[in-house]
Amino acid sequence: MSPLPTRTPALRRRILALTAAATVSALLGGCFADGANEADGGGEGDDRRIRVAMMQPPRSGLSPLSDDAFKLSRWSTAETLVRLDRDGDALPSLATGWRQQGRTWTFTLRQGVTFHDGTPLTAADVVRSLSTAATASPKPRILDGVDLTVRATGPRSVGVTTAAPDPLVPHRLSSPQLSILAAKAYRGRTVDPVGAGTGPFVLVRAQGTASATLDRYDRYWGAKAKAAGIDVRYVPDGTARAAALRSGEADIVEAVPVSQAGLLDPKLVTEVPMPRTNTLYLNTGRGTFRDPALRAAAREAVDTRSLVSGVYEGRADRAGGLLGPALPWAAKLRTPVRHTAATAPKGARITIGTFTDRAELPEVAQLLQQQLRKAGFEVELDVREYAHIEADALAGKFDAFVLSRATVLDSGDPAAYLYSDFAGDGSFNLSQLSDPAVDAALTTAAATATGEARRKAVVAAEAAVLATDAAVPLLHERVIQGDGANVVGAAHDPRERELVTADTHVR
Predict the structure, then answer these.
(1) Measured distance CA(389)–CA(369) in Å, rounded
(2) Residues 326, 274: Cα–Cα separation, whole Å
(3) CATH number of 274-478: 3.90.180.10, 3.10.105.10, 3.30.160.40, 1.20.1050.10?
(4) pLDDT, tens digit, for every residue of 330-385?
(5) Predicted TM-score (pTM) of this structure
(6) How many angstroms separate the Cα of 402 from the Cα of each of 227, 364, 365, 370, 429?
(7) Residue-averaged pLDDT of the chain
(8) Is 3.90.76.10 the CATH number for 78-192?
(9) pLDDT of residue 306
(10) What is the pLDDT of residues 26-51, one digit of tens each?
(11) Where is each Solute-binding protein family domain found (predicted)?
């Protein structure tokens, strides 16, 4: 493999700034030309609209059964029975309460809710939406491996039954992929959310991969939206998104690249710890890192401080474990982990794999290569697009793999991530780990009821994983969001479920 180019953060910023001058005008031409907030035609207060530049265009026509569902929740147009608080605990939304009896959870529906087409929310609507998701092919990710049935138990209550007892049912129902939509959304083979949600904003127009338009819904069951509407444009180029904020063409910009954040007015940039960890997975099943002492040597060789400062320009958090500051309870419950003593590598050869889809990961891999070589390893890199490397990574063909991994999946609970990545039968076990103590801890965590007891079991499972040195946590990423100087109340959500809420407006 040819060596990766070395670029300092300052050099990257200069290159990108020069590139931006030549490309941004073309990328942004007419981006928000029809926006309502231009100096010659904008309103004030309730008449102002919010212009949002989003990173990724829809991949599935804004179907709530796909990852596009997170756009619907970020625009506050589609809602779920349950929502999650900052700690990941379940709170009422379209359901006002719930109770469990055996394998069945019964949810009581909120009164006075209407869909955007004017029809009232009923138990039949909830059954339709959840049953459609449960029988979809493929299922929404939140229901992967879950056998779920739904039935009306009264005019304003539904029963959700799982094949096996599941303490996470309320958390699962908080996933935007299980949004409750009006009957009109389910005509034909696709699910069309236009005019079919219950949130404070109604989706009135979706123009493919170009834009979306939402207006305030005045019959919303909760507090009236403070903005007149939302005008969304999809701007995949990060330099263009940052330029839209600088020029005032966008009020809110999601996913500002690390390389661009330093070029913006610091007052316009908000960084929020994200439940996503960059981890060096070490292959415990074959090769050099079958030896626990060499895994320990690799862990001791890693300098996370230089990764955060050199690659992420200080816009990330050094990892103290697999679970980062987006889950503040984890650090409070964590205790020191006992590791195997390290042994000298003495030229042991390893290959580290990673992918180019996340721009920072090849640079992370390059710095790790330097650190591990200094410790005495012989290190090669294998860097490809993710689609061309995933199969080899899952098959255990690398000695180590660098991955940016979400640590809470759609349920808001990290037990599922820990199980998939580190259980002997885990579906994403890059470390090829098969350890009875780890498996026992993971099984206990998965079966424990939600609350403090489950959190303690999750942290105990994390400790069991870390004790094997099958994974070396590197850093926790941050959401970098740009908000215009006149924006009030934009959500800064580490789970990226919220962005524009009923309280968000432009002064």
Answers:
(1) 18
(2) 5
(3) 3.10.105.10
(4) 999 999 999 999 999 999 999 999 999 888 899 999 999 999 999 999 999 999 99
(5) 0.79
(6) 42, 8, 7, 14, 13
(7) 90
(8) yes
(9) 97
(10) 445 455 655 455 433 344 456 899 99
(11) 92-426
